[in-house]
User: Fold this.
Amino acid sequence: MRIGAIQLDNPTVLAPLAGITNLPMRLLAKRAGCALVYTEMVSANGLVYGSAKTCQLLTSSPEERPLAVQLFGGDAELLAEATRRVTAAGADIVDLNFGCAVKKILKSGAGVALMADLAKAEQVLRAVRRATAVPLTIKMRTGWDASGCQALELGRMAQACGVDAVALHPRTARQGFTGRADWSVIERLKKALRIPVIGNGDITCAEDAARMLAQTGCDAVMVGRAAIGNPFIFSQIIDLIQGRAPSAPIPADRFQVMRAYAAATIAHVGESSARYLLRSRLGWFARGLPQASQFRAAIHQLATGDEALRRIDAYEASLVQTLQR
Assistant:
């Protein structure tokens, strides 16, 4: 699949997840074979007005390329200026968020609020398209009702404005992450557009991804929550769609990924901040393993990043010993 001039190796994409898809998380996905990764949401306002915390979200590595930077905001000119800045910083793709349904985002006129004001959405799309020559994508929801009409209208508008691909999470603004994603809206959008359509929603395993591709005809699948602590889902999807039986990771694989995530987090945010992040996030990778609750308790009061690595080693040694009995 191509997004503008960007050729993807396979049809797998890591979704932008606020507070989660930082550089360490994206690197795990890339190493598992994911073709395209997105940053977490980056505030156009924060970027333009020099928020250090916002600017840190753009920290990248050559290993994760191509990289899509997702921007959110409700002001066309601020979004255009933010687009110029992330383009200058080396973004391979710029993405606009039309799907976030968090209340504080909606109050600012951003996210899925733009789907309720398509005239304003068109202003945003045209301003941002003029601001960059790199490929431009958008990520949206079904809209404010279940009909899918707003998604189809916005998709056609985006195509007319020069957007290079559209990602659709087919839940309404009011659903949030509840209920079921209506994949039929993805199918309808794909039939309506010439540009690539990326499907998102209710992909929990490789079989779901293969089924979405077959049922909707979408060009790629975007995996979000199912990839948290489980980057192996990308290699499993690739195996399945290429005719191979997907293999489940063995415990040694999971501990290797756990160490890589801990080390990358320490390098990314520093020793002091890493200990706080790892107290909760390392538990993602232990989900489903024996003694997971004991491990989560052991890391709850991490004093240093290095201690996290020692706790991982101790957990693996204890688990191996238990399995050998």
Q: What stands out?
A: The chain has a mean pLDDT of 94.
